[in-house]
Write a structure and sequence with these properties.
Blueprint: H1 6-17, H2 19-45, H3 52-56, E1 61-63, H4 77-91, H5 93-98, E2 106-110, H6 117-128, E3 132-136, H7 147-161, E4 165-170, H8 173-176, H9 189-204, E5 211-217, E6 233-238, H10 244-255, H11 266-275, H12 282-298, H13 306-323, H14 329-348, E7 355-359, E8 370-373, H15 383-403, H16 412-427, H17 454-481, H18 483-496, E9 498-500, H19 501-508, H20 518-531
Helix pairs in contact: 1-2, 4-6, 7-9, 10-11, 10-12, 12-13, 14-15, 14-18, 15-16, 15-17, 16-17
The structure holds adenosine-5'-triphosphate and zinc ion.
Length: 533
């Protein structure tokens, strides 16, 4: 509500101008109030018989002068880099238009709760120096018929009038769930109307409307595919929970507001605190800092000290353990050896995809750790390539077998992938000598009978099993041979939580297959080009 901002704006200015004006503040405040009420009455007057209240009551948040910028958002550099494109566009749309470039209309910011999605969206407005209009999807759900859609219309109208600007829809899953899902029981027509209006607004933009639409969600998986079409939210930016270094930087942001003893070594403190807070989100870290200050205040202390932080961390962890599962030290060890197994296999198998990053920070929705590979733009898989990939995928479980007495349920996803690949090799790709070049995966419509005899079924079964078992054996031999290397990587993961390709080179030396690294070098070169301006 822009009108409401009259008062604070006048007040702040007087403070900065000086003492003399400061004394005038009360009368200026009064003046501001008078102007505000007159303006309200005037715009209301044009609104029809119901007068002022009806027209000026807008239910979305407007911030014209956003104070937050990228420096306030830490530990998510990749997301910042991706969103930078919008900042550049909003700052200088003419430059893009002159060249005929079409700028993406919007982006979905997804990730676990409290990772700074809202903060990043707001900081984007702050960096670009444009107004920020926001609503929360969950507010629409309870609304009366027609209210949601008209509110969306108002929101976009205001954003257009004040362009360049940013619209942010938080919790977009509340209105943007796949249509049809949730109908019937608890089905919500108003939700659907609201979603439709949002789509209409986004489609109604012309390229000269300099409005960027951002949305936040921690359920990107349930979104209606209509939202993700080109010209709508055509970018997806993922923000994960921060790793060790990220947490250090986020503590850096929030410790600025805390009164620390002058003798306190800030770097040392950040290091300790980030080590004590694995699995915490940015919001949790903000919470830790605030709690620590409260504890210190309760004890009438002059400064906030390490032991206050330690107490507040315990408190926040206790609260979190109820809500989400944090890894125990034992579990963390299992995840570290599991991921190290994948990474070592990838490093020493010629046709495995180049590794970008391994992490043992839980990612939400079940994944306890992950290894990220360069997406291979290969369309033809040789037998060798498929076998290498399967061997690498088994690396997690095999490493668990080799280092612990019992195995965990953490590898079920891996098995699914491996079994799927083996099935394809046998049934579809003609890669099993016993089955030959026959495809058993042709779509036969309604015919549900098996296209092969019982005897062939047995052969298929044993062939799939043989292929998987051979990969398992090969993986085991490799990981036994490279036991020292697995140890190095696992230990590094346990201390740093994340390992990049550079770390792997430092620990293991260059990856042996020179020509196989080409794809990676090309990828990195491309990335640098993109990062420049
Ligand atoms: N990366 C970060 N850097 C600094 N502070 C952060 C970061 N992430 C979160 N915070 C702190 O946590 C607060 C809440 O974060 P924010 O609301 O942006 O999270 P969110 O991802 O939108 O959460 P939700 O999914 O619950 O809506 C922020 O205002 C900020 O104080
Ligand atoms: Zn795995």
């Amino acid at each position: 509500m822009p009108e409401v901002m009259w008062i604070p704006v006048i007040y702040v200015q007087t403070v900065s101008i000086g003492k003399a004006l400061f004394q005038l503040a009360p009368s200026l405040l009064l003046l501001g109030f008078l102007l505000w009420t007159t303006k309200k009455a005037l715009s209301g007057g044009a609104g029809g018989i119901f007068g002022q209240k009806k027209k000026t009551f807008k239910k979305f948040n407007a911030e014209k002068n956003v104070k937050v910028n990228f420096a306030d958002v830490a530990g998510c550099d990749e997301a910042k880099e991706e969103i930078m494109e919008f900042v550049k566009f909003l700052k200088n749309p003419a430059k893009y238009e002159r060249l005929g470039a079409k700028i993406p209309r919007g982006a979905i910011l997804s990730g676990p709760p409290g990772t700074g999605k809202t903060l990043l969206a707001k900081a984007t407005a702050g960096e670009a120096g444009v107004p920020f209009y926001s609503v929360s999807g969950s507010e629409f759900v309870e609304m009366f018929v027609g209210v949601g859609a008209s509110r969306v219309r108002d929101l976009f109208k205001t954003a257009r009038e004040n362009a360049p600007s940013i619209v942010f829809v938080d919790e977009i899953d509340a209105i943007g769930k796949s249509r049809g899902k949730g109908k019937g029981m608890g089905g919500n027509d108003e939700r659907e109307n609201t979603l439709n209006q949002l789509l209409v607004e986004m489609d109604g933009f012309s390229t000269s409307d300099h409005v960027v639409v951002l949305a936040g969600t921690n359920r990107a998986d349930v979104l209606d595919s209509a939202l993700l079409r080109p010209g709508r939210f055509d970018r997806k930016i993922y923000i994960s929970n921060p790793e060790l270094e990220g947490r250090k930087d986020i503590f850096g942001v929030h410790l600025k507001k805390i009164r620390l003893a002058p003798s306190c070594d800030l770097d040392d403190l950040k290091g300790r605190l980030s080590a004590l807070t694995p699995g915490m989100s940015g919001a949790d870290i903000a919470n830790v800092c605030n709690e620590a200050a409260l504890i210190a205040a309760r004890h009438n202390e002059e400064y906030v000290r390490l032991h206050d932080f330690e107490q507040s961390i315990e408190r926040v962890i206790a609260g979190l353990e109820k809500k989400t599962k944090l890894l125990s030290p034992d579990e963390k060890k299992v995840v570290a050896y599991h991921e190290a197994g994948h990474a070592i296999c990838g490093w020493y198998l010629e046709y495995a995809d180049p590794l970008l990053k391994v992490s043992i920070v839980p990612r939400g929705q079940g994944a306890l750790g992950y290894a990220q590979y360069l997406p291979a733009d290969i369309f033809l898989y040789t037998t060798q390539k498929m076998l290498d990939r399967m061997t690498m995928t088994l690396g997690g479980r095999v490493s668990e077998e080799l280092h612990f007495n019992s195995v965990t349920s953490g590898a079920s996803d891996d098995f699914e992938k491996v079994t799927g690949l083996a099935q394809r090799m046998v049934l579809q790709c003609g890669m099993s000598p016993k089955i030959g070049t026959i495809s058993y995966t042709i779509d036969r419509g309604q015919d549900m009978t098996k296209p092969y005899s019982e005897r062939t079924a047995k052969t298929i079964d044993s062939e799939i099993r043989r292929i998987v078992d051979e990969c398992h054996e090969r993986c085991k031999n490799l990981l036994i041979e490279k036991a020292d290397q697995v140890e190095l990587v696992a230990q590094e993961l346990l201390t740093k939580e994340v390992i990049t390709r550079e770390d792997m080179i430092r620990l293991l030396g260059k990856r042996p297959f020179a020509n196989r690294n080409d794809a990676f070098d090309k990828y990195l070169a491309g990335k640098d080009e993109k990062g420049e301006d």
